[in-house]
Structure formats: C-alpha cells, structure tokens
Amino acid sequence: MTESDVSGQPKLEATRRVASSCPFHTTPEQAALSKDFDAFTFMANPHPILARARQEAPVFYDEETDYWVVTAYDSVRSLLGQPERFSSDIALDPMFPFDPAVPEVLTEGEFGARPFILNIDGEEHSEHKRIMSKVLHPRAVADREDDIRLIARRLISSLPDDESFDFVERFSMVFPALVIFMFLGLPEEVVSDVNRWADARMELFFGELPLEQQADEARGMVEFWQFIERHIDEQIDDPGDHFVGDLIRLLLSGEEEITRNDIANYCWTFLFAGHETTTSQITNMVSDLLLQREAWDAVVADSGLINPAVEESLRMNTSVFNLRRRVTEEVTIDGVTIPADSKVFVVSGGANRDVAEFEDPDHFTIGRDNARRHLGFGFGEHFCVGAGLARLQLRVVLQELTAAMPDLALVDGAERRFINNAFFCAPRTLWLERKA
Ligand code: HEM
After folding, report:
1. Ligand 1: does its nearest atom lie under 6 Å from the Cβ of 385?
2. Which domains does the chain have, with CATH numbers?
3. Contacts for 128 with CB less than 8 Å, ≥ 6 apart
4. Is 389's C-beta closer than 6 angstroms to any atom of ligand 1?
5. What stretches of 292-336 show up as alpha helix (H) in DSSP?
6. Out of 176-180, 188-192, 264-268, 362-366, least confident range
7. How many angstroms does the Cα of residue 283 sit away from the middle of ligand 1?
8. What is the pLDDT of residue 7?
C-alpha cells in the first residue's frame, strides 16, 4: 500500500497521542472535535465548528458516522481532483443501514434507479456525463432564458405586498421545480407531489429517519420512480421539445447507446440534483443579501453586481455542503493517515470559508477577486453538470426580485428551520416582508 500526502505537502507527523478508545484519534483536538461534531444537526450553524477544525485538526475521524471529515480548502480541492484515489461510489449511500422493509418496498415497486453519474467512476461515468452534457448544453439552456424569466415573474407577482410570507414555500421550492419540469416536459400540477417525494428521498438517504418511518418514505420514492417511467412511456410515440424528448430521439435513432432505464435515471438525477439544490441556493442567496442589507441595496442600485453576487452566494452559503468519497488506497491528508477503503466526508461548503483561501470569509463581499474558486459546484470529474442552468436561474431570480421588490426585508425574529440531514444546507423557511 502506498502512503502519500494528498495535497502534495510534506507529511506532518501527528505527535500527540491521546488516551481514547478510538484508535483513529491521534490528538486531543481530534477526539474533542469528534465528540462535538454532530453530522445531522451541525448544518443549522456549521461554520464555528468547521473554523475550529481547520485550525486545530483539519482532518478528524467522526466515530458516530464512521467518516473521516476533511475541512481545509486545499485538501478538499485536491482530493476532488483525484477520482482514482477518491472514488464516488459511496456518494449517494444512505448514512445508516435501511430498515429491512425498505428493500422489500423498493423491489415490490420495481424501483429501477441505480448507481448513476454521481456515484460511478471512470469511463462509465464519463460516458453518461457526455450524454447528459449533450442535452444540457449551454445553448439549450440559454434558449430557455425567456421562459425561465416568465416563470420567475409569474411567481413574484403572486407574492403579497402587505403581509409577510414564507419565501421558501411561495417561491424557492416552486421556481426550480417548474424550471426542471419545463426542461423535462412534465406538467406543473405535479409540483407538490414531486416536492413531497424529494423530501422523502432526502430524509431516507441523507438523514436520521426512525426505522418505523423508513418504509413509508420508500413508498414515496417508488411512486416518484413510477411517475417518471409513466412520463417516458407517454413520450415514446411523440417525443416533445425538451430533454426527455431529446433523449428519446437519441435512443430511437441509435445515435447513442442508451436505454429506456438510462433515460429514467437521467430524469431521476435531474429531478434530484437540479431541484432541491437550487431551491436552497436561491433561499441562501436572498437570505444572505438581506442579512447584510448594504449588499442587497448595492445590487438594487447596480444590476451589474448581480453575477458577482450570485458567485459570492455560492461561496458564502453553498447548498450542497458536503460530498462523500471512499479512499481506494491509504492516504495522508493534512498529516492524518486514512486507511484504504475508509469513507470521507468532504466539507466543500465549509472549505469555501477557509481564510487560507478567501480573505474575510464570513463577509459577503461582492466582486472578490477569486470568488469563482468556490467549490459550490464541486471540482474535477464530478463538477456539476447543471452549473450553467443553476447560475442562470440564480441570476434571473435576483434580477427580477430586486427590480420588483427593492424594499424586501427579513421578518425580525422569524424562526429558521433546516432539514436535519448531513449534506444539504437546506433552510425550510425564510419569512420576508416589504418594508415600504
Ligand atoms: C445551485 C444549484 C446547484 C448546486 C449548488 C449544485 C452542486 C453540485 C455539486 C457540488 C456537485 C458535485 C457532486 C460531487 O462531486 O459528488 C454537483 C453534481 C451534479 N449536479 Fe449540480 N448543483 C446545482 C444545480 C444543478 C442542476 C440545476 C442540475 C441539473 C439540471 C444539476 C445536476 C447535477 C448532476 C447531474 C451532477 C453529477 C455530475 C457528475 O457526477 O459528474 N445540478 N452539483
């Protein structure tokens, strides 16, 4: 087995040993961090503990989840750039083993989603990514800008002027869903069903769901899958002008070697990877700008600041906060040796606040020089396929919202709730009002 430092830095020796029952804690700081870190609740306020980790023990082993937590920007970026040593094959695994009823429900419902794009490596990954990028190419995305803007305007015009409202419920949950639906050719009426199924999937795979609730959530996933299959069947004879239509045309023409199951998996992946992520990013962006009021006012006054504000939002509070990898050979990261086959919790959202990379990282600084070096869309082989579409949506939302509601403000003291899960910084409420 080889041993080397992932960041290319000389290996630092971990000098202090601690009396701990866990052999993986080699310093008191690592042991203390493992004790204080709770993967399922830290998302409501992640940055204090991550700043402490970067200073005291940038890599530590979390006993509760059996993951090695990597927090520093250089190490995160470096490991994401080495897919052979850091496999994505665990990227979507459930955090805890399922209740035995779950596989039964999935088998009975002929649930056909399988390891796909996000959790495969090598040539198979490159091949699927090539096809996905083909249907999601920049021109296809740009062609839809006017339609996307109309959706944003319609939803914004329905927001109340004279009372407070939950922006998540009224806007950010709905807008990206309608955009993805337009790209997939799905009817708008099913938005609330899809939102419900998406929550079921997130809690089942990435949360700490009690065993007795798991089978119910699995039924929701089966419904979701069957819904996608029906949609593809309905399109086969007369494919429409959207992604699913494009994919079916590729299948029927034989131009690409894809199957009906592949198409269902592309849709499943788009609905999953393209919806909740964007919902939360829009929420985080609006919330951050309003919290730092002068930043919001600056964007209202100068629309030229919108693109840099979008990038800064992706750095400051990225919705896809943690990624996962499995190490394929023993590695040393920031002086800590991680055995082969271990699981790594890659805190890319936290790395975006590393002071070693970003000056004054807790400040929303519109137009910082290196803003685009954020890891909000990942890095390397698995870099987000939908980054162009996501950026376009964020830009349109900010343009339309600042134009229509320049006096928007946070409701003082309103409770903020987050979905308890280990990967997505996903606020479930954002109470806003107009202050005119
Ligand atoms: C602001 C919104 C979004 C954020 C923050 C985001 C973030 C990410 C991140 C961090 C990854 C890398 C995952 C990894 O390395 O394990 C990723 C991958 C991916 N994203 Fe996004 N994403 C967003 C929107 C979208 C949209 C709109 C779509 C599609 C319609 C999409 C589709 C995908 C797909 C298919 C992958 C897998 C790429 C691969 O494995 O090669 N994402 N995204």
Report:
1. yes
2. 28-434 (1.10.630.10)
3. 116, 117, 120, 262
4. yes
5. 293-301, 306-316
6. 188-192
7. 17
8. 42
